[in-house]
Design brief:
Strand content: under 5%
Largest sheet: none
Structural class: mainly alpha
Order of helices and strands: HHHHHHH
Number of strands: 0
Low-confidence stretches: none
Helix content: over 70%
Length: 172
């Protein structure tokens, strides 16, 4: 009977609030960001999530990647050895998550109302790091890694068609 209880407990998913709290702690403490990003990714397969929860998960995944990027940026600033690929890949993922967050964020709620919570923050992420997305593509081109370069250039161009940025004609 004890084993059955143990198994039942293992089948109960961790509450989203707990996952988000753990992720915020990882950002604050500057550790375990990748593990928390992965835990949030697994939670997205749940069918009972609201669009608001999905948006918050994506937003938090973006913040986790920006946190990992900051760590590489600090090393670079201090003239320490840093991981250039990680520097660019975390910005790519942060930007991709910001776009995924926006599509969930602008979805109508149960009452049919659209109340985006993260729109301006996501727009700021995309506008701030867009030049680095292009630079990331160039970084991989110089290494002749065309497969790795493609998502950077694709995002750099496709970003302009996103509802989040379509009013920013200054980017063209």
């Amino acid at each position: 009977a004890m084993q059955a209880q143990e198994k039942k407990k293992a089948d109960v998913p961790t509450p989203v609030k707990t996952l988000l709290r753990d992720a915020r702690a990882a950002i604050k403490n500057n550790r375990d960001q990748a593990k928390n990003e992965s835990n949030l990714q697994k939670a997205l397969s749940r069918t009972d999530l609201t669009m608001e929860e999905r948006a918050e998960i994506r937003y938090t995944q973006s913040l986790l990647n920006l946190s990992m990027n900051d760590a590489e940026n600090v090393k670079a600033y201090l003239k320490q050895k840093y991981d250039t690929a990680s520097f660019f890949n975390t910005l790519l993922k942060a930007s991709q998550y910001a776009l995924m967050c926006d599509s969930a964020d602008i979805a109508p709620n149960e009452k049919g109302k659209v109340k985006p919570r993260f729109r301006e923050k996501n727009r700021a992420v995309l506008l701030t790091y867009r030049p680095n997305i292009y630079a990331g593509g160039r970084f991989y081109l110089r290494k002749n890694d065309f497969k790795a370069a493609l998502p950077f250039f694709t995002l750099y161009i496709d970003m302009l068609d996103e509802p989040l940025l379509k009013d920013n004609v200054s980017l063209l």
